[in-house]
Write a structure and sequence with these properties.
Order of helices and strands of chain A: HHHHHHHHHHH
Number of strands of chain A: 0
Number of helices of chain A: 11
Number of domains of chain B: 2
Distance between the termini of chain A: 32 Å
Strand content of chain A: under 5%
Radius of gyration of chain B: 25 Å
Largest sheet of chain B: 6 strands, mixed
Radius of gyration of chain A: 23 Å
Largest sheet of chain A: none
Strand content of chain B: 35-45%
Structural class of chain B: alpha+beta
Oligomer: heterodimer
Number of strands of chain B: 20
Chain lengths: 268, 363
């Protein structure tokens, strides 16, 4: 690339980059640092301590957080699993189903929820549950999460599958494998990195969701995001920063894992 | 064909249409047991489509396919006792070489131990025993090609289908594999159906060749037939090099046709059914069946001017302009034996034809 057209040489490139990075990450850095603060104040630094991490597990709000964490993780696990299964089936049908008339439409319908404002989905889901007479509670959160996780699980699976030539399945069938055997022995192992990546993405999206969950949850059923929000409304305390930091760490681990897995080549 | 020659694959009036497009126009051919049969043609001629119809990856729009007397065109691929060597090999990238080769055996119900034993034997046949535990991506193109061959041969198919398996290899390796394939075919006694667009490859390897073009079979015969007595313009032009000349038939007498070139010169050659006096046809003469001289050697010697000598290693190819705006390519063996005559460009030369070298062709 010639030096003149290299974007790095544009006036203000460096400044703009640092401003953007600062705006994006400064709040996260502050929260992370202050979660280790010894003081109950959220602005005055009084020294390093793990006090607020202890508080999350043993403090006055620990029961609430524990119940919320159990709900969050169990919902994320079930929702991500089911969404991944549905997304894998959808990807198989759309990528391997040949050319059918509603193919583009199907693809659009699956990825549309990513583009629709979440608040609209939340209201729509709530109205739907009311219309069919579901009592709001754990189950409504779970069903809603399964639904909105599908597009997140779908995209990495589809991307992976498009890279797999269909001659592999033909070769399997040529070698006496039935369609089901060709899928299980050849296509599925080759798709696995995409499937795991999709699962992790769906898991983290479910764990993190606030808006839809807040709409469809019943009274007394909390997930971590709604519990944190409830707690914050009664005043900002450093234990929230500790929880946030732990969630942040988990998210970083899972997103990194998802990325690494999607890049792995199980063919080498 | 003798009466007791068994037919391995019998394609009867097979037609393949994709919507309005007809990829294969009513093809009928019988591939004999234990023969090395080649489907030869340019890309888009339907040869791969026909192979995939035999394998079961393409439906047969009309017609039938029999495998050793059993009708198979409605069976799914996994129920047909034929195996395919794919053009890009399609080795399962997540399995080792040994797992790849034993896959077909396991799917057929062999125990894992039996499958592995047989797969080991197949790897021995293709000399890849020491690579059994490698992944396909760790092998060279030529080695992958041999794994694909071993994998397809392992379940002892009744017919082996090969879809341009050598096209990705470089020339030296391709030539070596041609010999190895032919050798393996003889050794295993399995009927091979080989698809290629490379006429030299087809001539080298095949017992019989079906030349295809535009979804139709142009000629079926052994390599010599196809090369020496092409049935039409397409075959003459596609197989090897040839001089194709526009001629008009002046008269036919005693099985010989007298033809006039556009420059007025007359040549005689064997008459062909359906070509009568007055017909505008083509004359095909292979360049190696022509020779040059500086004096006429016969009444039919054709006077011309040497344009260019092209050195091609084993031969020297000379282009000679003759009156009437036509030119001949003459091949002379690059050896001191025989009556080698290399004439300089610009000199007068006489083009002479071996008896029976010229062949009349209808479009």
């Amino acid at each position: 690339m010639s030096a003149k057209t290299d974007v790095k040489n544009y006036t203000g490139f460096r400044t703009l980059t640092f401003v953007c990075l600062f705006i994006l990450y400064a709040p996260l850095v502050v929260v992370t640092i202050y979660s280790f603060n010894a003081s109950p104040s959220i602005t005055v630094w009084e020294g390093f301590s793990l006090r607020w991490y202890g508080d999350v597990f043993t403090g006055p709000e620990s029961g609430k957080f524990k119940a919320a964490a159990i709900n969050s993780f169990s919902i994320a696990l079930i929702a991500a699993t089911l969404a991944t299964i549905i997304a894998t089936s959808a990807a198989t049908a759309i990528v391997r189903g040949g050319i059918f008339k509603t193919r583009t439409l199907s693809l659009g319908l699956i990825s549309l929820p990513l583009m629709v404002p979440e608040i609209v989905l939340a209201v729509a889901t709530l109205i739907f549950f009311n219309a069919v007479g579901f009592t709001r509670g754990y189950m409504t959160i779970l069903v809603a999460h399964i639904a909105f996780c599908i597009p997140f699980a779908y995209l990495p699976i589809q991307a992976r599958m498009q890279g797999i030539e269909d001659t592999y399945e033909q070769a399997a069938m040529d070698l006496y494998a039935t369609k089901a055997q060709a899928f299980r022995r050849v296509l599925l192992p080759l798709m696995m990195p995409g499937i795991i990546s999709g699962f992790l993405l769906a898991f983290i999206v479910s764990l993190d969701d606030f808006i839809i969950t807040n709409f469809v949850k019943g009274a007394g059923v909390e997930t971590l995001p709604t519990a944190i929000f409830g707690s914050v409304k009664q005043g900002l305390k450093p234990n929230i920063m500790a929880i946030s930091t732990m969630l942040l760490a988990l998210s970083i681990v899972m997103v990194t894992l998802s990325y690494v897995v999607s890049k792995t080549d199980n063919t080498k | 064909m003798t009466e007791n020659t068994q037919i391995a694959v019998d394609v009867r009036d097979a037609i393949k249409r994709y919507g309005d497009f007809t990829a294969l126009h009513r093809i009928s051919l019988g591939i004999r047991d234990n023969e090395f049969f080649t489907l030869l043609g340019p890309s888009g001629c339907g040869k791969t489509t026909l192979l995939r119809m035999i394998a079961g990856f393409e439906d047969v729009t009309e017609g039938a396919i029999f495998l050793y007397g059993e009708e198979i065109e409605d069976l799914p691929p996994h129920q047909r006792p034929v195996n395919t060597v794919f053009q890009n090999y399609a080795l399962f990238p997540h399995m080792s070489v040994l797992e790849n080769v034993s896959f077909g055996l396991e799917m057929r119900g062999a125990s894992k131990a039996d499958a592995r034993t047989r797969a080991g034997e197949m790897l021995e046949l293709v000399q890849l025993t020491q690579f059994a535990s490698r992944k396909p991506s760790q092998l060279s193109g030529g080695q992958q090609q041999r794994v694909a061959l071993a994998r397809a041969l392992a379940p002892s198919p009744k017919v082996l289908l090969l879809d341009e398996p050598l096209s990705a290899l470089d020339l030296k390796l391709r030539k070596a594999m041609q010999i190895e394939l032919k050798h393996i075919q003889r050794e295993t006694g399995i009927t091979f159906i080989f698809v290629t667009h490379d006429q030299e490859e087809a001539l080298t390897m095949s017992d019989r060749i079906a030349v295809m073009s535009a979804g139709e079979m142009q000629q079926l015969g052994d390599p010599r037939d196809i090369y020496e007595t092409p049935r039409n313009m397409f075959v003459a032009d596609f197989i090897g090099d040839t001089n194709l000349l526009d001629v008009s038939v002046e008269g036919i007498a005693a099985g010989r046709a007298t033809c006039k070139l556009s420059g007025g010169h007359r040549l005689t050659c064997d008459a062909v059914d359906g070509v009568n006096a007055g017909a505008k046809v083509h004359l095909s003469v292979r360049p190696e069946r022509l020779f040059l001289s500086d004096q006429p050697t016969a009444a039919e010697s054709l006077q011309g001017t040497v344009v260019e000598n092209i050195f091609i290693g084993t031969d020297i190819s000379t282009i000679v302009d003759v009156p009437g705006g036509q030119h001949f390519t003459v091949r002379t063996s690059n050896s001191d034996r025989g009556n080698k005559r290399i004439l300089d460009p610009g000199t007068t030369a006489y083009v002479n034809m071996e008896p029976g070298a010229a062949r009349l062709l209808v479009d």
